[in-house]
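Sorry to interrupt, but I need a hand with the structure work. Could you write out one complete protein record for me, on any chain you like? Could you add the entry underneath, on a fresh line?
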Amino acid sequence: MEYITLANGVKMPLLGYGVYQVDPAECERCVTDAIAVGYRSIDTAQAYGNEAGVGEGIRRSGIPREEIFVTSKVAAEHKSYATAAQSIQKPAVPAFRLTWFKATPPFLSEPAGRTGPFRRRRST
């Protein structure tokens, strides 16, 4: 596995396994299989509804947790560190970056719009 060293010194695998749209009932097996074939980076999100399966797949893999790089995204309604940390109860990672943007359905109950810092700008 190839790694890149981030600015804070953390080593991150260049290749990761994403679980977007993986059925929560199948997620544990998928993650365990991904780890068995060599993946050491797993990407998930609260909105996917399968974070528990990711955690259980990692636990059952037999690979020490510190050897697996996990990224997740908190739901858009958690716009501060305090509410994000509370939403995941006890963070499984020592630090995380909270980035908020206007998500598209089905992750929000309201329709997406061109608002906030990522709105489309007109050219002159």
